[in-house]
Each structure stands twice: as structure tokens, then as C-alpha cells.
Amino acid sequence: MKRAVCILSGGMDSAVAAFIAKREGYDIIAVHFNYGQRTETRELRAFRDIANVLGAQIYEIDLPFFPQIGASALIDSSIEVPTDGIKPGIPVTYVPFRNGIFLSIAAAIGEKEGAEAIFIGVVEEDSSGYPDCREDFIKKMEAAIEAGTKPTTHLQIRTPLIHLKKEDIVRVGHELGVPLELTWSCYKEEEEACGVCDSCRLRLKGFEKAQLEDKIPYRLKRS
Questions:
Q1: Which of 124, 138, 199, 212 has the smallest number of CB atoms closer than 10 Å to its CB?
Q2: Domain range for residue 103?
């Protein structure tokens, strides 16, 4: 069976991307990164729940150096997570080169496991403006992985959601039977989603436009 490494954060986008890989007939190798993010415990729980539904082989990777780098509200408690609405530009929740690091490790796992593809749930058109979610970046990372692995290793980076809006992702997830209620998107909280960080707002807006109910608990709901 063909194999795919799926970078699975525990969030909605990566879960939908992994279910797309499953639908395409890939045997799933689910990879999760604990990097000192504010909601690390809750994201890990969501990852395990989703990976279990997928029947995936699991890698849980600890990356303790991220807080040393800092420079992001997700890994530096001295920087507040914005809650006053999505603004133009790159937000303080951007973690420097996070997806580049994740893809590099996923490539190493993929080479070891004989995988053919890496699936990542990046979204370019309706995301928070992160530079490492752009299609140009993904293409260049794919070329770097091809140049830096064995001649027999060929890993395509698959980004099935990259040009979708959040409401489209919600609809696709619903159609595929993705247990979206098991996913977690909030940047701030682990018991009830805050409803006001950028990630919560994008998720709530997506469910609202898709005319579907988001079943995770929220303190507030502001799309």
C-alpha cells in the first residue's frame, strides 16, 4: 500500500487533509509536534483522537527548542495572543519557519518509512497570513527535500486545502466524515475555545458560512 506522512496538529485543517489522504488510498503515518505551544496538551489529545480514527501509525515528536527562539505569541507567554479581530499582515502568532522545520522532520520520517507523499493542511487564501503557508514556499521545500534525500526517495508535498476558504474546508470535512468535534483550533485555551483569537474566528466564520454547527465548546463566539 502507498504511504503518506500526514503532519497532524490536532486542528481542523490538518485533520481534513489527512482524511483526504486516507480517501486517496494512502496508509497514514501521523506525525505530531509538541513545541511548547500554549495549547500543547489539548492539541496532543486531539491528535491522538484523530489518529486513532484514521488507524494511523503514530510519531509524536518533541521540539523543546522552539520556546528558546520565541518571537511568537504561541510559544512566548510574554506576548499576548491577539483577540481584537484579524488584521492585515503577519500576526504575532506566526512561529518563525515552523512549517519548514516540520516538513524537514516529516521528510526524514517519510524517507525512513518509504512514503511517497507528505500531506500538510496549509491554507494560503484564508489563513492568518503566515509566509510558510504559501504555495511558493511549499514548492521550494519540495525541491529542497528532493535535492537532500536519497536518489530512491521521492516525496511529493501535498497541500489539498491550500486554495480553499474555511467554509469549503468545513464542507469537505463534513462530506468525508471527519470528526471535526475532536479537533482543536484555539490558540489560547484548552478547556473551552476562547472564540476571539484569529484561529477561533476563522473556524467560527467557516462553520457559519458552511451552515453547519461547530460542536466544540466556546467561551465566546465571534466570527
A1: 212
A2: 3-210
